[in-house]
Design goal:
Chain A is built from two helices and 28 strands. By secondary structure, chain A is mainly beta. In chain A, strands 1-28-27-26 form a four-stranded antiparallel beta sheet. The radius of gyration of chain A is 21 Å and the shape is globular. By secondary structure, chain B is mainly alpha-helical. The chains are: A mainly beta, B mainly alpha.
């Protein structure tokens, strides 16, 4: 895997362009920096300065090449590339708390912003007024929305919230699209309708992701659990309590496999078996370099025993690639159906690109179904 | 002529407390002074971890459950603690962790040492995740 350290500060959020040559990221301040890949170097080519507060979410629409950013200043901007400069357009979200996350819909005619105002703003472009307009989804959200993901049909939106629930809402906007066909989550989808609400896990929902077909949704919760729900007459929820620290982001890499990462600083694989409705731990996806084992003198042993009450010689240094929590995962190649590469960014200011084929061959028992 | 009507302290007295006919809830189950049967400690552990009083608001029930669990945990020999933890499933280990931390809140002379031994074994079985679940649980034991 390739690891590049961009900064010393955490990377708040990142987004890739369509051909994966440029990455837009927020270096934990009010700006967005766009870096371009040049051989093995990354050069900063643009700095987008418009927000008055930390930028909490960035999404780059691949087809229309527009970037949407949202921040703690309660605003969102849609940036379009005019010549060689990115020009912002303000979007009034009508929220009175910080915005936390933003995603373009699959068809790129809408985007959704989750905020601390306990609502989701679904924004679409109104041609007559040449202006971005937003509609709110309020009920029954009781706390901050932390993460969002769109269903491939461009209408359903999964939202993970601090009120311990993962929900699927309908974000159907009649001005910009046709009535959607029935899905596994239901057939009547008026705007704001709750198609699914999770039960069983407690803890803030940090990351949520639809599978490629849209029939499954996975979420990672602060009580160190990962859960998958499968749509149907009655949605079936399965959860797995993990033995690690809470996971912050989760994504499907095939219809049955998930990769998640979080405060333990390494990505992990989970496998979902729909026949038995069971979620199982697939393996740790970080092969630490074999460090040379130093011999321990008797004196060191006694010192360890005295100071730390253990004879272990393990130093307090993380062996994983990332040296701090991983906060975001994004798919680079292959989509959610057959992901070939994915990228993680974290609080250590670094970005790592993971290749699925090399991981599969490196870990003997890893099976990505 | 008139009684003293300046003070209204009489309003703060809870008259129902002094009512002789006041209904007092019967304590469910009797106080069992005997310790757990030495021969069947594993069974005692399983039994005491069944039906934890998570949903009740009655603090007495919770305290009694915690006392029982502590008694069972203290009567294990140090060498048997690991076997005890192995006999529990994932939810059992999480529940055990909850009781261990509850026990830490009110330490008595011997309880902390015993609880620390249980904590070490439960940690190796449940991992850091089980501690996170104790911290994030909405309904405590």
């Amino acid at each position: 895997m390739a690891y590049h350290s961009f900064l010393l500060e955490p990377i708040s959020c990142h987004a890739w362009n369509k051909d994966r040559t440029q990455i837009a990221l927020c270096p934990n301040n009010h700006e967005v920096h766009i870096y371009k890949k040049d051989g093995s170097n990354w050069n900063k080519i643009h700095v987008l300065k418009e927000h008055n507060g930390q930028v909490t979410g960035i999404d780059w629409a691949p087809e229309s090449n527009r970037i949407v950013t949202c921040g703690t200043d309660r605003n969102a901007y849609v940036w379009t590339l005019k010549g060689d400069v990115w020009k912002p357009t303000l979007v009034i979200l009508r929220i009175n708390r910080a915005a936390r996350c933003v995603t373009w819909s699959p068809k790129e005619n809408k985007f959704a912003v989750g905020s601390g105002s306990r609502l989701i703003s679904v924004c679409y472009f109104e041609q007559e007024n040449d202006w971005w307009v937003c509609k709110h989804i309020k009920k029954p959200i009781r706390s901050t929305i932390l993460c969002l993901d769109w269903h491939p049909n461009n209408v359903l939106l999964a939202a993970g919230s601090c009120d311990f629930k993962c929900r699927i809402f309908s974000a159907y906007i009649k001005e910009v699209e046709e009535k959607p066909a029935p899905t596994a989550w239901g057939s009547k989808m008026p705007f704001g309708e709750v198609m699914f609400e999770s039960t069983g896990t407690s803890g803030w929902v940090h990351g949520v992701c639809f599978s490629d077909s849209g029939n499954r949704v996975a979420w990672a919760s602060h009580d160190s659990t990962v859960a998958v729900a499968e749509g149907g007459k009655t949605a079936v929820c399965t959860s797995l309590s993990s033995e690690t620290l809470p996971l912050l982001c989760v994504t499907f890499i095939t219809e049955n496999s998930l990769v998640a990462a979080g405060h333990d600083c390494y990505p992990v694989l989970f496998v979902y078996d729909s026949n038995n409705a069971a979620l199982s731990f697939g393996g740790k996806l970080d092969v630490p370099k074999q460090s040379a084992q130093k011999g321990m003198t008797a004196r060191e042993r006694f010192q360890n025993l005295d100071k730390k009450a253990s004879v272990d010689s393990k130093e307090a240094v993380l062996e994983s690639v990332h040296k701090n929590s991983i906060s975001q995962i994004s798919i680079l190649n292959g989509g959610k159906a057959k992901c070939a590469k994915f990228c993680t960014t974290g609080m250590d200011g670094g970005m790592a690109i993971w290749d699925v084929k090399t991981l599969e061959s490196a870990m003997k028992d890893l099976k990505i179904v | 002529m008139s009684k003293n009507t300046v003070s209204d302290r009489f309003r703060k007295v809870d008259v129902d407390e002094y009512d002789e006919n006041k209904f007092v809830d019967e304590e469910e189950g009797g106080e069992n002074q005997l310790g757990p049967d030495e021969g069947n400690l594993m069974g005692a552990l399983q039994a005491v971890l069944k039906n934890p009083p998570i949903n009740t608001k009655n603090q007495n029930v919770k305290d009694r459950a915690e006392g029982l669990v502590l008694k069972v945990l203290s009567s294990f020999k140090s060498t048997d603690i690991e076997k005890g933890v192995q006999s529990l499933d994932k939810n059992g280990v999480d529940l055990l962790m909850k009781y261990i931390y509850k026990g830490f809140e009110r330490p008595s002379e011997n309880s902390s040492a015993v609880l620390l031994q249980w904590h070490e074994k439960a940690l190796s079985a449940g991992g850091v995740g089980s501690i996170v679940r104790v911290l994030t649980a909405r309904k405590t034991v």
